[in-house]
Write a structure and sequence with these properties.
Number of helices: 10
Strand content: 15-25%
Oligomer: single chain
Bound molecules: 5'-O-[(R)-(carboxyoxy)(hydroxy)phosphoryl]adenosine, zinc ion
Radius of gyration: 20 Å
Strand order of the largest sheet: 3-2-1-4-5
Length: 346
């Protein structure tokens, strides 16, 4: 069936048309309008500006998704939209637009959870993958482990007690004066740092993996330690706050930070697999695009004898394809929304 997927939970307005059934997935179009340049001026997402930018973009993004797919609304079988979690004003734009679309064209409306959608991105290249599995969702807003027992049932077995992994990457990057959002730049700089510095030369930073059997994380310790280190280096080098942070120092911070984060995350995924006896893992969300994390998690899954599935980097960040893919599964489970559908921040 042909699904129009609509995403507007944060700073990307995204729509996609996906032809999905139980065994195959055909991505007909995938349009993402990012607001990064707008929010970069403020060093982070400004919710009011995000909502307004979604309102401006959504009609054109949806039209382009239909045109690129070579279809019209008449061909679409269902409209799927992210309705939680996210920025409430941003979510409401997508939800209201999707309701109008579905109502005008008499199509079923499907509410999609953003976390489940991130995980579902993996079906684009692995349409035959069937739960149960463990899903690790690492994004700007989440760092969580789920036991996924069927396509629509996610039981949280671990999560962050404070900041999310992406938030921590972005914060360290911002203090070093890197461009927003800093995750991708931290990835590049860490690559330089790993080449240049030995493991023993890396700065010792606290692991985000909490000690013991818990599957929970905490990123506040590593974030604070990294920020303090950056301030100390600035002071030692006599740099003013507006002076650029030297690239070799930034590479050392990025590599040290990345080293602690990827091993902390991989450790907890390994514990989750062992504790539950599960042999399949999925990693998804914006931070799952991190090249070092992808390698560390693949290694850990290898040690656990578990198969690992990760969406291609372009489907790790927010997109409409993932919403359409989870929408298909919700539709199959009979989860059709009515005209009272609302948006929820969490
Ligand atoms: O999933 P996403 O697009 O939005 C949320 O649902 O939060 O994730 C965005 C987050 C940002 O914090 C961004 O810096 C981070 O993903 N990110 C990365 C990389 N690419 C994006 N973090 C580390 N390494 C990357 N390569
Ligand atoms: Zn997301």
């Amino acid at each position: 069936m042909l699904i129009l997927g609509i995403e507007s939970s944060c700073d990307e307005t995204a729509c996609a048309v996906v032809d999905a059934n139980d065994a195959t997935v055909d991505v007909k179009s995938d349009i993402v309008a990012t607001q990064i340049a707008t929010h970069a001026l403020y060093g982070g997402v400004v919710p009011e500006i995000a909502s307004r930018a979604h309102t401006e973009a959504i009609t054109n993004v949806a039209s382009r998704a239909l045109t690129d797919a070579g279809v019209t609304m008449a061909d679409i079988d269902a409209v799927a939209v992210t309705n939680r979690p996210g920025l409430i004003g941003a979510l409401l734009v997508g939800v209201s637009f999707a309701k109008a679309c579905a109502l005008t064209h008499s199509k079923p409306l499907i509410a999609v959870n953003h976390i489940k959608a991130h995980t579902a991105a993996v079906y684009a290249e692995n349409p035959g993958l069937v739960p149960s599995y463990i899903s690790l969702v690492v994004s700007g807003g989440h760092t969580s482990l789920y036991s996924v027992t069927d396509f629509v049932t996610f039981n949280e077995i671990g999560g962050t007690r404070d900041d999310a992994a992406g938030e921590a990457f972005d914060k360290a990057a911002r203090v070093m004066g890197l461009k927003y959002p800093g995750g991708r730049e931290m990835d590049r700089l860490a690559g330089i740092g790993f080449e240049k510095y030995t493991k023993r030369e890396l700065i010792k930073l606290p692991s985000p993996a909490l000690a013991g059997d818990t599957l929970d994380f905490s990123f506040s310790g590593i974030k604070t330690a990294a920020v303090n280190h950056i301030h100390n280096v600035r002071q030692k080098l006599g740099l003013a706050p507006e002076d650029p942070f030297p690239e070799d120092e930034a590479a050392l911070v990025a590599a040290s930070f990345t080293y602690a984060v990827i091993h902390g995350i991989a450790d907890k995924l390994g514990s989750a697999l062992r504790q539950t006896g599960t042999k399949t893992a999925v990693m998804a969300g914006g931070v799952a695009a991190n090249s070092h994390l992808r390698r560390a998690v693949a290694k850990e899954c290898g040690k656990c004898g578990a198969a690992l599935y990760v969406p291609k980097p372009s489907l790790c960040g927010d997109n409409g394809v993932m919403v359409a893919l989870q929408g298909y599964r919700e539709y199959c489970a009979g989860n059709i929304a009515d005209t009272s559908l609302n948006a929820y921040a969490d």
